Amino acid sequence: MTDNEITISLPGVQLGGELNIPDNALGLVIFAHGSGSSRKSPRNQYVARILRQHGMGTLLFDLLTAEEELLDSQTGRLRFNIPFLAGRLLQITRWALDRGTTGDMKVGYFGASTGAAAALVAAAEIQDEISAVVSRGGRPDLAGDALERVTAPTLLIVGGEDKVVIELNEEAFTRLKCERELRIVPGASHLFEEPGKLEIVAQMAAEWFVHHLQPLARHH
Asked: The pTM is what?
């Protein structure tokens, strides 16, 4: 199993990342974290561990450089700049595909908060390359007109106590034309911090990715 901290070199920027690919991985899940977060997000790290237990490879990375993080913490200018975040995610996706680390593996996105909107915009852009999307407490509404162009099966997970975000997810759900599900976790707030709630999210995500990312031959 490869378990390594990596530096991802893109045009003009270098981003920290963490790539873990179990032997005989079923697929690769690329994480897009939410505003004010990073690849070290304990919630995303937890979900990534569960996904690896189910045979998924995972790639967590920093959407922003240290300088961009500083600027964003002062201005909040980048965290809601979905085209910028989606563009960065697309660059990372192409980096992963070009490196050949994925082999013939299918690729999925796991997005949280504004990262979910970036994941949906990116999935709409490279339809053939993305086989599944999961949103945790996400803002898919911010994906705008890209929602109608998403072809990857999409799972939206929202906390039952996160009333405003539930409405925003319901609105986005009606605009999605792909295979889709909206699941509400009872008693969970926006960050799923209540005991046992994040475990439910991780299990839902794992089942979604296992179903949609595994090679067709494995269905038999």
From this structure: 0.93
